[in-house]
Design a protein that fits this description.
Blueprint (H helix, E strand, L loop, with lengths): L18 H10 L6 E3 L6 E8 L2 H13 L5 E4 L7 E2 L2 E2 L3 H9 L3 E4 L12 H19 L7 E3 L7 H10 L2 E7 L5 E3 L3 E5 L7 H14 L2 E6 L13 H13 L3 E2 L2 H13 L1
Bound molecules: zinc ion.
């Protein structure tokens, strides 16, 4: 199915967060918006892809499926058939194929705006545009369950909205989700080429085991010559191997969040 992406011109992007905006976001980490006291008795790992590049939907999906993993793909509808940050992005067929293969299609906004200082109507217009885009491909009953903040940027207002609209919202603050998790600002462990090492990986896996925590890995493109923000196939394979050797359960973000919520009811 061919879809013509449209631009949300009424929501032009902002410059990257300056030091003050970054400090404000860091402060928000001390105030949990949607606290969930985890009663997990064993750790969980999720794999996710943001934006997302064509290679994540092809090379990345093959690696996931060969390992029997359902991953989470955070979809930015306006990226369809486009280049984003000089990387070729998904097309409509990728969305249908990934969904049919049992991966989670999640929301990463339509226009990939920085969510600082936005009004409720701006945010809702963008979210509904992304949902309309996904429903054209996946049917009128399709709903997103999970969200990831574009560029990891938010303010108290947008975090509150995302906490209400989605089961979870994920930022880019690094760490293992444990004890009291903020379902409106989940932490993540990037599998990015620019910072990856086996020691880095092992540190987070050991922490997840020790705390019965939840690691959400995220990356972008998957290629031998991947971007700084992407993964080589070797990185992904090494991460999967380490998780399997540690016998940690692998669930997509929606499944993991649902399991954590269900454990809270026990
Ligand atoms: Zn993004």
């Amino acid at each position: 199915m061919q879809l013509e992406p449209t631009n949300l011109s009424e929501m032009p992007n902002l410059p990257p967060a300056n030091a003050i905006a970054r400090a404000k976001m860091a402060m928000l980490n001390f105030f949990t918006e949607k606290p969930i006291a985890s009663k997990l008795k064993s750790p969980i790992v999720s794999f996710s892809f943001d934006d997302f590049p064509k290679s994540a939907a092809t090379i990345g999906a093959k690696i996931m499926q060969d390992a029997g993993i359902s991953a989470t793909y955070y979809l930015t509808g306006s990226n369809c058939q486009k280049n984003f940050e000089n990387i070729a992005q998904f097309d409509a067929e990728d969305i249908e194929r990934l969904h049919d293969a049992g991966h989670e299609i999640a929301c990463h906004s339509y226009a990939h705006p920085r969510l600082r200082g936005r009004t409720q109507s701006e945010i809702e217009a963008d979210l509904s545009q992304n949902l309309v885009f996904a429903q054209k491909l996946l049917g009128p009953d399709f709903q997103f369950q999970s969200f990831a903040y574009p560029y990891g940027e938010f303010d108290a207002f947008s975090r509150k909205i995302m906490g209400k609209k989605f089961q979870t919202a994920r930022g880019v603050y690094r760490g293992v989700n444990k004890t009291v998790m903020d379902f409106a600002n989940l932490k993540t462990v990037p599998l990015e080429n620019r910072r990856y090492s086996k020691q880095y990986l092992d540190k987070y896996i050991e922490e997840a085991i020790r705390t019965n925590g939840w690691i959400i890995f995220f990356t972008h493109d998957v290629a031998e010559d991947c971007s700084d923000y992407g993964s080589t196939t070797a990185i992904l394979l090494e991460a999967i191997e380490a998780v399997k050797v540690a016998d940690i359960e692998i669930l997509n973000v929606n499944e993991a969040a649902s399991k954590i919520m269900a454990a809270c009811q026990l």
